[in-house]
Design goal:
Blueprint lengths: L1 E7 L4 E7 L4 E9 L6 E9 L2 E9 L4 H13 L12 E8 L10 E2 L2 H9 L7 H15 L4 E6 L9 H4 L5 H7 L8 H15 L7 E7 L3 E7 L2 E5 L21 H9 L4 H10 L2 H6 L4 H9 L3 H25 L4 E5 H6 L1 H8 L11 H5 L6 E2 L8 E4 L4 H17 L1
Parallel strand pairs: 1-6, 6-8, 9-12, 12-14
Antiparallel strand pairs: 1-2, 2-3, 3-4, 4-5, 7-8, 9-10, 10-11, 13-14
Helix pairs in contact: 1-3, 10-11, 11-13
This protein binds adenosine-5'-diphosphate.
Length: 404
């Protein structure tokens, strides 16, 4: 069964075509700078076990033109990816915000589109772009099932004490202000991978999952259900990130508004784009932060310390939320590739039953790695995430439900 996964940004289309039954990627790519004269399309496809890459300069006036060209490349007989459009039985769309309406992947119809539109105030940059992808894919694949997979859905199981902010209740009711959480597809994917790896049912496992990429979040997952997560109404809350501050005393905003004469937009820009690792040491890429720290740069060393300490605090918090933890699960760019961050985040947590084996932690391997000591009560695992595969799997599940 072939499923196309589409992730639309305001000027980009990221895509992957899967053979889901075989967990195989048949083609993937990225169209960038849509709407500008110098759009670029990078397309990769597999031919007899070998990956072929082509880069095209183009001029895509809009997402429709971009996706049309992608479809042409998928259908190109020389590439041999698919022989007709109808081979693609479903299209899975990443949708950032499903508010409190969407708890699971959902087959798209006009009502669903209206409901995603209603969530735009909660994600004004992302949801309109995701909707554009949906509209365009419906035009180009009129016979395929279209499924929306939401970043927020996995966190809809958060109990009220974890999702409500202590502000006047009417504001929660009026604006739906609450903790939503993001990266849900990744937290869900690695949770299931861990259950398979440990050969135990997910319903019996208590996990703390750590998605540490440019954006970073953690989740407390009890028996497969998320009970807490670090991101909030927006992806700005929680951990320190590449350019985002994460948790901060709200009064800092009031202080800066007053003393630096900053508007709401200025503050939004400051906390989302000029804070985090970038704000602390001038670079947002963890590889550069580590290189600078190792070369003796004190600011970079401090940034590493703040970054790792925040993670450690949440490991403690989520140990309390879960009561018992079976495994810590590190994933995404930093989680999978930065042993130093894993080591520092877990330093001194022997009292919580968490012990990293430094040697195992420094090795590199494909797939899932166990990096805890043999005696560690809590397993520490490194699990590669695959959000697109998860979207494809969820799309398949929703399609199967529909067709019975
Ligand atoms: P995104 O949120 O954009 O999907 P990724 O999951 O790709 O992000 O993670 C990007 C982050 O991972 C960057 O901070 C990058 O520096 C970091 N990273 C990637 N490889 C390494 C590495 N080998 N060592 C340390 N950090 C790494």
């Amino acid at each position: 069964m072939k499923i196309l996964v589409v992730n639309c940004g305001s000027s980009s289309i990221k895509y992957k075509l899967f053979d889901v039954t075989q967990r195989k990627v048949l083609a993937s790519g990225l169209a960038e700078r849509i709407g500008e004269p110098d759009s670029i399309l990078t397309h990769k496809h597999m031919t007899v076990g070998e990956e072929k890459k082509q880069v095209e300069k183009n001029r895509f006036a809009d997402h429709l033109e971009g996706l049309q060209r992608i479809v042409d490349l998928l259908l190109d007989p020389e590439n041999g990816t698919v022989s007709s459009r109808s081979e693609i039985s479903a299209v899975g769309h990443r949708v950032v915000h499903g508010g409190d309406t969407f708890h699971q992947p959902t087959l798209i119809d006009d009502q669903v589109i209206a409901d995603i539109e209603a969530c735009i105030p909660l994600a004004p940059l992302h949801n309109p772009a995701n909707l554009m992808g949906i509209q365009v894919a419906r035009k180009l694949f009129p016979n395929a099932l279209q499924v929306a997979v939401f970043d927020t859905a996995f966190h809809q199981t958060l109990p009220v004490e974890a999702h409500l902010y202590a502000i006047p209740f009417e504001l929660h009711q009026k604006y739906k202000i609450r903790r939503y959480g993001f990266h849900g597809t990744s937290h869900a994917f690695v949770s299931e991978e861990v259950a398979v790896h440990l050969k135990r049912p997910l319903t019996e496992l208590n996990l703390i999952t750590l998605h540490l990429g440019n954006g970073a979040s953690m989740a407390a997952v009890a028996g497969g259900r998320c009970i807490d997560t670090t991101m909030g109404l927006t992806p700005l809350a929680g951990l320190v990130m590449g350019t985002r501050s994460g948790d901060i005393d709200p009064s800092v905003l009031l202080f800066l508004a007053k003393h630096e004469n900053l508007s709401a937009e200025d503050l939004d820009d400051l906390l989302n784009k000029r804070s985090g690792l970038q704000g602390l040491c001038g670079v947002n890429d963890m590889r550069e932060v580590i290189a600078k720290a190792e070369a003796g740069d004190q600011q970079a060393e401090t940034a590493m310390a703040v970054f790792s300490y925040r993670i450690k605090q949440y490991i403690g918090a989520y140990t309390a939320s879960l009561g018992r933890v079976d495994a810590l699960v590190f994933t995404a760019g930093i989680g999978e590739n930065a042993p130093l961050v894993r080591e520092r985040a877990c330093q001194g947590l022997e009292g919580l039953g968490i012990e990293i084996d430094r040697q195992k932690n420094r090795q590199r391997a494909e797939g899932i790695m166990e990096v805890s000591t043999v005696g560690s009560r809590v397993k520490v695992l490194v699990v590669p995430t695959n959000e697109e595969l998860r979207i494809a799997q969820e799309t398949l599940r929703a399609a199967e439900k529909k067709t019975g």
